[in-house]
């Protein structure tokens, strides 16, 4: 639907670090249910843009809107409670805990610090935990310690932890980084499946991966949006070739 209001919007978003604009004048409109890919060279401002959107850092100028609500400056926790979940590039799971226990921490069914006092908590997954584990390919590993998981499984566990918090929008920073080819393919499948139920914004710089999930792409360059379009449009855009793809 053409006139549908975007679920997430950046309006003239700028942030400066010691005067240097890491993100400059970025306008972005993500439709409800969209799977959007952000690409760009190292240092283009992609991660900083996600930091701004999830409220981890404050913009120097501009606004962030969640549907009809201006969420600029309301804080990271309030933004998360409003339905925006963020997966970081480096997994931040609890290595000594099992997959299920990590999911329970994420959904507040288990308090990590007092985990021994909470042993009466069910050790069997709830329907929801089982569904999240299934969706991220971790059901067979649900009682395994995170320290025993592969790099790919760790990334999926962190995504599963984000999903346990019931976000409507999921922000992912290079979800396939460091993965094997097989894990990368699986991650692409996982994102396509996720896009059936969530709005997804994903940073990726591997064009092969981007082609696998092939949706609308936003190209960032030196903090700004350089182009937006399909993979085919992006790959034939002279400015994009010159700034990014040509090297
Ligand atoms: P990308 O994710 O596209 O590789 P980043 O968003 O990480 O790029 O970085 C964009 C630019 O902002 C880089 O030049 C980086 O060095 C700079 N930058 C990022 N975070 C900070 C920070 N906290 N303080 C100072 N400079 C930063
Ligand atoms: Mg980055």
UniProtKB/TrEMBL annotation:
CDD domains: ABC_Mj1267_LivG_branched. GO terms for cellular component: plasma membrane. Keywords: ATP-binding, Nucleotide-binding, Transport. One of its GO terms (molecular function) is ATP binding. Gene3D superfamilies: P-loop containing nucleotide triphosphate hydrolases (3.40.50.300). InterPro entries: AAA+_ATPase (IPR003593), ABC_AA/LPS_Transport (IPR051120), ABC_transporter-like_ATP-bd (IPR003439), ABC_transptr_urea_ATP-bd_UrtD (IPR017781), BCA_ABC_TP_C (IPR032823), P-loop_NTPase (IPR027417). SMART domains: AAA. Residues 8-247 form the ABC transporter domain. The keyword ATP-binding applies. NCBIfam families: urea_trans_UrtD. This is Urea ABC transporter ATP-binding protein UrtD.
């Amino acid at each position: 639907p053409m006139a549908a209001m975007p679920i997430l919007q950046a309006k003239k978003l700028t942030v400066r670090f010691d005067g240097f604009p890491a993100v400059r004048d970025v306008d972005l409109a993500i439709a409800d249910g969209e799977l959007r890919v952000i690409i760009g060279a190292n240092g283009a401002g992609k991660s900083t843009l996600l930091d701004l959107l999830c409220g981890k850092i404050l913009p120097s100028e501009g606004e962030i809107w969640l549907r009809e609500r201006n969420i600029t400056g309301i804080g990271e926790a309030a933004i998360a409670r409003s339905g925006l979940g963020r997966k970081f590039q480096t997994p931040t799971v609890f290595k000594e805990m099992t997959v299920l226990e990590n999911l329970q921490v994420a959904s507040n069914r288990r308090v990590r610090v007092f985990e021994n006092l909470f042993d009466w908590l069910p050790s069997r997954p709830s329907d929801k935990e089982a569904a999240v584990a299934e969706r991220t390919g971790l059901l067979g590993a649900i009682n395994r310690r995170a320290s025993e998981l592969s790099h790919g499984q760790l990334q999926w566990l962190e995504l599963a932890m984000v999903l346990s918090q019931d976000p409507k929008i999921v922000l992912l920073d290079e979800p396939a980084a460091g993965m094997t080819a097989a894990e990368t393919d699986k991650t692409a499948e996982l994102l396509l499946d996720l896009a059936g139920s969530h709005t997804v914004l994903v940073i990726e710089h591997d064009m092969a991966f981007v082609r696998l999930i092939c949706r609308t792409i936003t190209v960032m360059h030196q903090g700004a949006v350089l182009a937006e379009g399909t993979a085919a449009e992006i790959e034939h855009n002279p400015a994009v070739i010159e700034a990014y793809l040509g090297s």
